[in-house]
Amino acid sequence: MPKKNKQCLLGLIIALMFIKHNFITKTFRLDTDEFGPVEIEKLTNDTTEPEIEASGTKATTARIPVYHIFNSNSGDSLYTTNSYERDNLTRLGWKDKKPNLYCTNSGQKLFRLFNTISGEHFYTLNIDERDTLKNYSWRYEGIAWLTPQSGQPVYRLYNGNPKGSGAHQFTTLISERDALIRDGWRDEGIAWFTETTKDSTPANLNFLGINRQLIIDELSKHERDSYYLGTPYVKLGTNDASKYMIPEIGMNCTGFVAKVIQNAGGDLTQITKSSDNWGGAANAYNWRNTLNLKVRSYSFNNVWELLKSNKVKKGDIIYFEADYSERNHDCHIGFFWGDSPTDNQMWHSAPSENKIGKLYSPAGYSKIIVYSI
User: Fold this and answer.
1) In which element (H, E) is residue 180 found?
2) DSSP class of residue 362?
3) Which tens digit of pLDDT belongs to each residue from 167-179?
4) Angle at which helices 253-263 and 212-220 pack, to 10 degrees?
5) At what angle do helices 284-294 and 253-263 cross, to 10 degrees?
């Protein structure tokens, strides 16, 4: 083919591609409802998508909590699996709602976007919807997480009236979805699927709504970072438990245990509604009182006896009962972190920082109790 004809053909192809791009761009509206989440396309095998940084490496079989935090000033709801992100925003005044959504590390890519004008976060499985919004005032923030292709549906609704955040709502509750529809919201179908919700708790979870494996998953994500490890130890001094549950800022021994349980998806009110002495969820005596009633436990006179028992497993809670004969007696609590029952390893907060080391209590103790979580 003559060189001139090749140039003409190439110019024609480029012109057609430009026309097609403009046509597709003008077809979609900013309110994101043109495709709708129910028209989910088959996802590509592209592995170059940026991921929103998770809080550590996820285990293959991990059941990962999806945290829901809410900004009461802007009306924006943020969903994230990243405990760093959640903790940073709650320190800025966002409200932390208990996780009732879960994902695994397999399935479809859920994309997250942020509207730089309205301040709203948005989630979609639809690649075309994602790419269209990127042409407007939406900033693509990467892959939020991987979501199952079936399970508990998360419904998406749209209201064009809000002048800012809150134009979209996501809910697993049919009753909430139907109430919003009655109030004039448009039903946009299923946004994604969640692993399970707090209303469909698997039978193998304990009274806190978690199990030992979820504790292991949460701690394993941070075994090589400074989210828990190195956090300064602070002694319980007020009745506000939240002040002693702040990774990287300060935790007492019980605040560390409480924060891990919470990050794993556990419900701390199950502790305080059973025993709510001074310090609440940051007081180890409240944990002892509740766990004595709720889970299987084993009592030992010393560390040597515990390690020889073959009763303890990684992720179990280790509690050192105070020696009440001491003038300044105190108890201590943490997690057994040995890879075998005879591996003398404990993860805990003790003066002067959060650490992994041999089993011990900073104060004298009268016995050791293992709680099989």
Assistant:
1) helix 174-182
2) S
3) 888 888 776 787 7
4) 100
5) 50
